[in-house]
Amino acid sequence: MTSRLKNGRFVKKRVGDKINNALAGMSDAKKLKTEITNKETDRDEIPDENGIVTWKVIAKNLKCCSCRSLLDLEKLQNFKTEGLHSHFKIKCDSCETLNMVNTGVKNNAVSEINSSVVLGAIHSGVGNTSLNKILACANLPQMRSQQYKKYESIVGKAIESEARDSCKRAASEERELVIKNVKKLCDTL
């Protein structure tokens, strides 16, 4: 008895079943891995992992936005990580206000630490997988591939713009040197 594969090729039924079972197993494993990695970290307790903080930012953000009293990290709620950038909420003991605390600088939904790490990865010639291996060894949160791609496109545009400007400056400088030394060049030629 024969069976047909997706590509139209005929194989024995036993072989076709084996291939289809293997493909289904790989698909299920990929779905499970995607579900695990796409889960956003959302906890109401102090995390048991290392993190990267900008000290000035965290010092500024650990004061209540309404009464300016100091916030207690043990009252942490709704801890989330987005790559290496973290933010959480802390309820003030004095006025019961819920304060958003960022661990680093974030401008227009772009985290400085995430873009810096991706720039370093591009500069050193490693990709998301290698970067995540390094972060795992340091017990730091890892970057999802979608986040890495987002920051890679942002950083890539900046790199291209700077390269273009650098080439223009070099061409302008060379032009000025030629104009300045045109007599020497004519005498030499």
From TrEMBL:
Pfam families referenced in this protein's UniProt entry, alphabetically: Mutator
Domain Mutator-like transposase: 59-181
Protein's name according to its UniProt entry: Mutator-like transposase domain-containing protein
Organism: Cotesia glomerata
